[in-house]
Design brief:
This protein is mainly α. The protein has 2 domains: 53 residues, Arc Repressor Mutant, subunit A, CATH 1.10.10; 108 residues. 74% of the residues lie in helices and 0% in strands. It is built from 9 helices and no strands.
């Protein structure tokens, strides 16, 4: 992808991205061609290739924008529960998420989050927006992907259902389950923990 900051190039990139999203409403992503994207954006193929290498490159640009905005939402981490931030973000981007689900592309968002969020976590810790004790001194390199995967599977299930279920009820159920899971884990681990201290 061409990273030019020229206003004309930025406008062309935005038009191409919007064209792909419009096409995804009526055509499976796999069947969409560069020619269709160029026609839909009312730009010539030469302009397309001046800005992007392929259709997949356009999708990556859309994902980058989506994930960058998601990371900006995380700044509210200390004011709102993370799951609430995620649901609010998803509601704001409902149309795009439903398109991604329709085209079996939700996994691409997960891939982006897995690469972007560990880096963002470090940044938030340095800014003092995430408490250092969040992971209790445990290595976050596995805990962050576990959180992302768990929450993203919930989001995928919600999106697959048309985003109709009440996010507040889902949040309540998840919160109660996490508390129950913590209590259950303590019971399961305590015999091993006691044996290890003997």
């Amino acid at each position: 992808m061409n990273d030019s900051t020229n206003p004309s190039a930025l406008r062309s990139k935005a038009e191409i991205c919007e064209a792909l999203l419009r096409l995804m409403k009526d055509h499976p992503y796999e069947e969409i061609t560069v020619k269709q994207i160029a026609l839909e954006s009312k730009l010539v193929r030469k302009t397309f290739y001046r800005n992007f290498d392929s259709k997949d490159d356009v999708l990556e640009a859309i994902l980058d924008i989506l994930v960058d905005e998601y990371k900006r939402h995380l700044i509210m981490f200390n004011q709102v529960m993370p799951i609430e931030i995620i649901f609010n973000f998803c509601i704001e981007h409902k149309e795009q998420l439903l398109l991604f689900d329709k085209n079996n592309l939700m996994y691409r968002i997960l891939q982006k989050l897995n690469s972007a969020l560990p880096e963002k976590h470090e940044e938030l810790v340095k800014l003092g927006l995430v408490p250092k004790e969040l992971f209790g001194g445990l290595d976050p390199s596995y805990l962050i992907p576990m959180n992302i995967g768990g929450i993203w599977n919930v989001i995928c299930r919600w999106v697959r259902g048309g985003m109709k279920d009440d996010p507040k009820q889902i949040t309540k159920d998840l919160t109660e389950f996490i508390i129950m899971l913590g209590e259950y884990a303590k019971k399961m681990v305590s015999p091993y923990h006691a044996a290890a201290q003997d």
